Amino acid sequence: MTTPAKPLAAYEKIVIDAPASTVWAKIRNFDALKDWLPPVAECPADKGNTPGSVRRIKIHGGGAVDETLVSHDEARMQYSYTAADGSALPVSGYMSTIRVSPQGQQSLVEWRGEFHRADRSDNPAADQNDETAVGAVTGIYQGGLAALKKLVEG
Hints:
Layout: E1 8-16, H1 20-27, H2 33-36, E2 40-42, E3 54-59, E4 64-73, E5 78-83, E6 91-103, E7 106-117, H3 130-153
Antiparallel strand pairs: 1-7, 2-3, 3-4, 4-5, 5-6, 6-7
């Protein structure tokens, strides 16, 4: 039985006990990922928050990924980016958006991504299948949002 590559998605959210402007201030800069996502050692962005900016993410213990900023919207407190294929993640065609929304005195942070598994063949290896791809992205989102909550709430 074959399992052709299909579009995949991951979505995680968290409520943080702080105003949206406070949370947005922590994540708004495209090169701020190192400040709140634990696996990231560094992530300089060559053009800051300007669409087309590329951040080169270096992972603690090895591995790297290049991500390109697609859009950055201060008013909506969100930005979207793509990741280069063949990166540290077992995915291809990756597009993601992170957004902060006010929830009274709290904030809702949503992180969503759409992608394909890296191996788009009919019979990918176990470490390259749909479940592995979704699990890897979901794990990053969950860990990152939990770390952001801890950072902001103290």
